[in-house]
Amino acid sequence: EVQLVESGGGLVQAGGSLRLSCAASGFTFDDYAIGWFRQAPGKEPEGVSLISGTDGRTYYADSVKRRFTISSDNAKNTVYLQMDSRKPTDTAVYYCARLHRSAIAAGPLVRGDLGPDKYDYWGQGTQVTVSS
Question: Buried b vs exposed e over 9-20: b needs ≥16 C-beta within 10 Å?
């Protein structure tokens, strides 16, 4: 059974740091990329970051570039999202999801690789709240 389980959410003050984890199981981790998405109340889901389990390529949305860092531990089938310099606008439910490597072109990852419709399994989400 495919599972993606997020953890690490919580309440943090603006400017603080938080690290989210996405533990994957039930599939060959190296064959997939893992994306992080977030959804704030009343807003559309937003792709945040993406990492290839095959070769470690990464991509960041402009809204989080230079503040968030995505990484993976393939031995543990886990992807991390380190969030620094948090802003109240980062408040959302954060989800991780998987994308098969066949859906990703060679070369740098691009914004289109974070299209939610491309992802077939999603975690249950973890709430992150940033207070001002």
Answer: beebeeeeebeb
